[in-house]
Design a protein that fits this description.
Blueprint: E1 3-7, H1 22-39, E2 49-60, E3 70-77, E4 84-91, E5 97-109, E6 115-116, H2 120-125, E7 149-152, H3 170-177, H4 181-186, E8 189-196, E9 207-213, E10 216-223, E11 226-235
């Protein structure tokens, strides 16, 4: 089953360079995924069970600019019992690609926080497709060992979701805020990835650690010695 939403972002969804922000891009994808959940009549998710994101993989072909209408298409690929793999394709009115993404979701018991096997009937409700945007897996992403920069993250109430955790779209903004000023202003990225290992909870004191790589930047968000999230930003400006 293919599901599509159309968006006309608001002026404050764009940054000072006129580009749609990376966080808003993720918010659009999540909204479309939720729309698919409603169409599939996913009643399995309740007070006892919930979908949680394991990771994001996003490749940007043409960064959306102010005034452009966006069409977001999503579908489930395959039928794994461990994770649900969701594809997203974002285009303009003529079908020209802005960006593509893949999100992997796990099903958890909200009381025990243990991962559940995905029931076959639940996968079938989403009517999986054979088409995939990423025919091969991305290289394994690990937290940086060599650290160039460390900065505390001051959590705000608005960063926290209904589970008492930092909302998953906020992490990319934490990474953007930890960039050097000139890199932040240029906002020139062709891809990014986010790996969610464990949630950052309300009331904790996380910090973000940064290192430069050959093709961009690598970050880890940690609470004490626990690595909660790893983020990779790939620059579109190659040295």
């Amino acid at each position: 089953m293919f599901v599509e939403n159309t968006y006309e972002p608001r002026f404050y969804d764009y940054n000072s360079s006129g580009f749609l922000s990376l966080e808003v891009m993720l918010q659009m994808l999540e909204d479309t995924a939720l729309h698919h959940t409603l169409i599939a009549h996913d009643t399995f998710v309740s007070e006892d069970a919930a979908w949680v994101l394991a990771d994001w993989r996003v490749e940007i072909r043409n960064r959306p600019k102010e005034g452009q209408k966006l069409h977001v298409r999503t579908w489930i690929h395959g039928g794994s019992r461990a994770v649900s793999t969701r594809n997203f394709l974002v285009t303009d009115d003529d079908g020209n690609e802005f960006f593509r993404a893949c999100g992997r979701y796990a099903l958890i018991n909200r009381k025990t926080m243990r991962i559940l096997r995905i029931p076959e009937e639940l996968t079938a409700a989403y009517e999986p497709e054979e088409e995939t945007l990423f025919p091969s897996d991305a290289p394994r992403l690990r937290a940086p060992v060599k650290i160039d920069f460390v900065q505390p993250i001051i959590l705000r109430r608005g960063d926290i979701d209904y589970n008492g955790h930092v909302h998953n779209t906020r992490y990319i903004e934490f990474a953007m805020e930890a960039l050097p000023e000139d890199v932040y202003r240029a906002d020139a990225f062709s891809a990014f990835r986010i790996i969610y290992s464990s949630p950052v909870e309300a009331g904790t004191q996380p910090e973000i650690r940064r290192t430069a790589t050959n093709n961009g930047w690598l970050f880890s968000i940690c609470v004490g010695d626990r690595v909660c999230t790893v983020i990779q930003l790939i620059s579109s400006i190659q040295n």
